[in-house]
Amino acid sequence: MSNPSRSAASALGILLLAGAAFGQDAGPIRLGVLEDQSGDFALATIGKVHAIQLAAEEINAAGGIGGRPLELVEYDTQSDNTRYQEFMRRVLQRDKVDAVFAGFSSASREAYRPIVNQFDGLAFYNNQYEGGVCDANMIVTGAVPEQQFSTLLPYMIKTYGPNVYTIAADYNFGQISAEWVRNIVAENGGTMVGEEFIPLGVSQFSQTIQNIQGAKPDFVVTLLVGTAQSSYYEQAGAANLNLPMASSVNVGQGYEHKRFTPPSLKDMYATVNYVEEIDSPASKEFVAKFRAKFPDEPYINQEASNSYAAVYLYKQLVERAKSTDLAEIRKVIAQGDVCVDGPGGQMCIDPKSQHVSHTIHLAHVTADHSVEFPTKWDAIQPYWLGEAGCDLTVSDPSEQYTPSNPPPSNG
Amino acid sequence: MDIFNLIFSFLYQFGDAFAFLVLSACGLAVIFGMMGVINLAHGEFIMCGAYVSTSAAHAGLPLPLAIVAGAVAAGIAGMIVEWVVIRPLYQRPLDTIVATWGISMIVTQGTLIVLGPSLQGVGTPFGSFTMGGYSYSVYRVILMIAAVGTLALLWLMFTRTRFGLLSRATIQVPHVAEAMGVNTNLIYSLTFGLGAGLAGLAGGLYAPTMTLVPTMGASFMVEAFVTVVVGGADIFLGTAPAAAVLAVIKAALTGWQGQLAGQIGLLIAVIIVIRILPRGISGKILKERA
Question: Which InterPro entries match (chain B) (predicted)?
Fold first, then answer.
């Protein structure tokens, strides 16, 4: 939680500093950070907060955003949807931040999104998710199903066979992602031999493992969320299930391959836009900077990388718009050339959906839980929303769409 | 052959659910069922057992000893909590909700801050066996044996030892027990410690099969409370049969329609039982016997 007296003091310090340096009244740019620093999701999201702190520190050391320092207003949302609503109101109304970085679970994003709409704020959702949010008040820097599944599933079907079993967390993320899996498996000539939705917080999987064995799939798509559900891997390993796995969400978020004893995640394939094992100069530099500031960070995950890059995206938007005003920022987005080089590759904002293109890396966990990258796909666009008819440069429906509930056609 | 495999797989799933319900509920049955303390920190005693046993195993202790160490550590933690927080609240059961909830939050967040978001597991020992096209984890069978063994030991402890007698006497009529020369404070403390230790045992036993995070206790709470509420105050006439009935419901529904159906089934069962048997299964049995 924030320490009011200390943050007030540092705000004052920054104000004085800024005033002295630039001799004008441009105060700091305030960035709200609503992330789960406790509760079931904390494991995957503490790194996001650290990444934002790292980026803010770098930007401030290099002169801030357009000469104005960047100030963070942090709240711990406790993996609790009602906290998101409470703190989203607080940062927009009382703290009057210029933009908010918020949210891990899709349930929490849908909980706070109407509040961002109500106050016409700007929120960055720096998380991979099930896709489909067509909302001018949101910029999504995480990867979406058409980026992760349209690459992953054809590879898996070609490598291991056409029979697919999905286990997914039972809320909007898991349900909609499972729908994507169903569609893309069918498009690639595969067959769904089973599908099971697991309530959040469930930690015992004996019967699920047996259901999977009974259905005899060639591989299992795991869309498990939260630390309780990740017990699945240990239990499937102990029961010698021994099936290849594919995921858009595991490894890249919850670093299950670091937490469980080998070989329980053997032959897990995940499409990620970043994990710390990526062997590129940009990635190595990011890891070195991150560990220098946070030596005890257990793992630098995909969402930490997205959050870090998002701060730089925001910096570019504000500097080019010469304003933190949402309408001015969106004029810059509409030009269609807002890109940064993130730790995992180039990321460009798509004006129609305000989602981001990514380099998608295929991460393969081996028997000893090291990670290798059999292939990668460059500049994969978040194309689905635009093709389906969402165009934020024309209209702002502020809706979330799914393949079975697409935008109404612009007839 | 197929029928045999089908029966075996159902028995395995039943045993697995039964073991989880019994082990998660035993400690709560002592603290909530017997002593009447609504212990919302039950999950944190489980987490304590899991963390201590895993750390002990990492330090080189053999797994069975590490599990015992986890149970003992949770038991000692329980006695300290009883002494510091619970003792003034025996006549105020509703206040125990707030007090233990507070303990739960302090411990969860404290663990997160001090030990970080997760602990590396030790891995499930003993491998697997195959029967009729399905493979099963050997360790899960050991958990079933441990559940039955725990019930048997508890039964012996409460019916055949002097501590068991004094404990039951103290909890039934504390002032008479005190008048007869029983150190009731000590008995309360030991009984609470026993409950916490049983929770720690559950944590130690399940630690190799689970993700080790500060919030891990929460995933035991629903099952533990459902079992104790359905069972009523008596561990042997209540918890054991309640766990058996709920395990049949859970295994059958999960096998048929997946995890969601299993969870719904458990909760519907508890609603029905509270409606028909407000004092749980053991309340019903004891009333008929009386």
Answer: ABC_transp_permease, BCAA_transport_permease
Q: What are phi and psi of B195, to 5 degrees?
A: -60, -45
Give Cα separations from A30 to A83, A97, B93, B149 (angstroms): 20, 5, 47, 59
The first and second tokens of residue A284, run together, are: 């190595």
Do the strands A245-247 and A268-272 form a parallel or antiparallel pair, or are they unpaired? parallel
Assess B118–A contact: CB distance below 8 Å, yes or no.
yes
Q: Is B210 on the interface with A (CB under 8 A)?
A: yes
**Which residues are within 8 A (CB) of A194 and not within 5 positions of it... i.e. 6 or more apart?**
A165, A166, A211, A212, A215, A217
User: Domain holding B282: CATH number?
Assistant: 1.10.3470
DSSP A317-328: HHHHHTS--HHH
Q: Is A375 inside a domain boundary? A: no
Contact B124 A235 (CB under 8 A): yes
B42-55 residue pLDDT tens:
999 999 999 999 99
CA distances B270 to B119, B221, B227, B231, B232, Å, are 34, 14, 8, 10, 11
- Tell me which amino acid residue B136 is: Y
Phi, psi of A10, rounded to the nearest 5 degrees? -70, -35
- The reply to whether residue A259 touches residue B258, judged by beta carbons under 8 angstroms, is no
Contact B123/A at CB under 8 A: yes
Alpha carbons A307 and A34: distance in angstroms, whole number: 12
Cross-chain Cβ contact A198/B260 below 8 Å: yes
Chain A touched by B10 (CB under 8 Å): no
Report the residue of A1, A227, A256 to disrupt the B interface, i.e. the one with the largest count of B CBs within 10 Å.
A227
Chain B residues in contact with A1 by the CB 8 A cut-off are: none
Q: What is the pLDDT of residues A158-206, one digit of tens each?
A: 999 999 999 999 988 899 999 999 999 999 999 999 999 998 888 888 8
Which of A231, A256, A272 is where one domain is finished?
A272
Cβ(A329)–Cβ(A316) below 8 Å: no
Is the same domain home to A127 and A39? yes
Instruction: Say if residue A47 is in the same domain as residue A94.
Output: yes
Residues A150 and A138 in one domain: no
Whether the model clears a pTM of 0.90, i.e. scores above it, the answer is no
Overall number of domains in chain B: 1
User: What ipTM describes this predicted complex?
Assistant: 0.81
Our count of domains for chain A comes to 2
Residues spanned by the domain of A223: 146-272
Which tokens is A243 given?
Answer: 């099936």
B140/A204 Cβ within 8 A? no
Could you tell me whether strands A358-365 and A345-348 are parallel, antiparallel, or unpaired per DSSP bridges?
unpaired
Q: Per-residue pLDDT tens for A107-135?
A: 999 999 999 999 999 999 999 999 999 99
Q: Same structural domain for residues A263 and A284?
A: no
Q: What CATH number does the domain containing A16 carry? A: 3.40.50.2300
The predicted structure's pLDDT at residue A25: 45
